[in-house]
Design a protein that fits this description.
Chains A, B: GO terms for molecular function: DNA binding; DNA-binding transcription factor activity. The structure is a homodimer of 213-residue chains. Chain A is mostly helical and 213 residues long. The first copy, chain A, is built from ten helices and two strands; from the N terminus they run H-H-E-E-H-H-H-H-H-H-H-H. Chain A folds into two domains: 85 residues, Multidrug-efflux Transporter Regulator, Chain: A, Domain 2 (Orthogonal Bundle), CATH 1.10.1660; 112 residues, no CATH class. In chain A, 71% of the residues lie in helices and 3% in strands.
Chain lengths: 213, 213
């Protein structure tokens, strides 16, 4: 398809597409003559992902370029590729290791991962930004005086493991590795608000069932 | 306890406690003489919640006062009281009803709630800010061209219902209604980042189990 059709089908203006091309967020089309390039479904898919990152996720252009670099790096293993793209997304800052709440949180996260037998999560440990996010979020609870620990988190972790299995089953319905990785990145930005809203609706529903409205 | 002890035990400076008292975020202590007031465990608990809302949730003081008004309104039913406090927290803006993606999202959310038999969620419908959040989040996916529908969301909704049952079981371990409502509000601010991090860790773990690192 030509640029005009790519614009129409994606809902992205030709000026914005040209900007994404210049910024290296979108691969150039196949040049058919000096002034015309031909685009295909992979460009449409990539535009969708660029919009998800930049317009919805508010990710800076440089970060989006870095994320897409990971998405496209076929030399990486699948877990690293699915995860590495997310690692480039905005992360929580490094926790303050002199804070006793951080030390307590780290101890509880270690206990949790041991009790669950999550070997990779333990092995990656603080290398993983999601591990760090968990320590920081739990440290905040502990600092405020909420006594959350490994035992309280374990049933939630098991349910989120079921959610993660569903996530990967869904990714596996996609035909190509490129589509799977792109979908994983888009989901990290777009699907979290859906999951959070489903959680809130389920709380309302369950509360009404137990206690009435 | 006196103000100095309340400050030490809560980790909140006496100046900040006085500010919260002036702003009506904290109930006055029991006046023992012209210059001294006595505080109890309920003040300590409330200070913890005020910090959760203001320091962690970045909720404006006026909104925090509104949330705490709902928390303290014993004339409300339990579901409304648990939920109403959350309803005062920052919400997504009203969706643009002329947008076809919003109409499609609303249709899929209706189908989802019917298929799940979530009667309260259907009855409250757009009155509920979490219902609105779900429509807006799904509309964003649809607008970008990701064909998410009721069938794809249903397994996630069922898992989030299990999470919600666990949430309410946990609330029920708290002795008083005031503690239950306060904990529900604190959890809405503080626990979502924990749940999200557990989801990410579970994805890493499951991906490594299926595909290696």
């Amino acid at each position: 398809m030509r640029l005009a059709e790519l614009s129409e089908r994606s809902g992205v203006s030709t000026a914005t597409i040209k900007y994404y091309l210049r910024e290296g967020l979108l691969a150039p089309g196949r040049q058919v003559n000096a002034t015309t390039a031909e685009y295909d479904e992979s460009h449409l898919r990539r535009l969708r992902l660029v919009r998800a990152l930049i317009q919805v996720g508010r990710v800076p252009v440089a970060t989006a370029r870095e994320v897409l670099g990971h998405v496209d790096d076929e030399s990486l293993g699948r877990t690293i590729r699915l995860g590495a793209a997310l690692w480039a997304l905005p992360q929580v800052p490094e926790p303050d290791e002199t804070d006793p709440a951080v030390a307590a949180a780290r101890r509880e996260v270690d206990r949790l991962l041991s009790s669950l037998g999550w070997a990779t999560a333990r092995e990656l440990g603080p290398l993983s930004p999601v591990h760090r996010s968990l320590v920081v979020a739990l440290a905040t609870l502990i600092r405020l005086g909420y006594a959350w620990d490994a035992e309280l988190m374990a049933p939630y972790a098991k349910l989120m493991h079921q959610v993660a299995m569903r996530d990967l089953d869904f990714l596996e319905t996609h035909g190509s590795e490129a589509e799977r990785v792109e979908t994983a990145v888009a989901a990290a930005v777009l699907f979290e608000p859906v999951l959070r809203a489903l959680h809130g609706l389920a709380q309302e529903e369950e509360s009404a069932r137990r206690y009435g409205l």
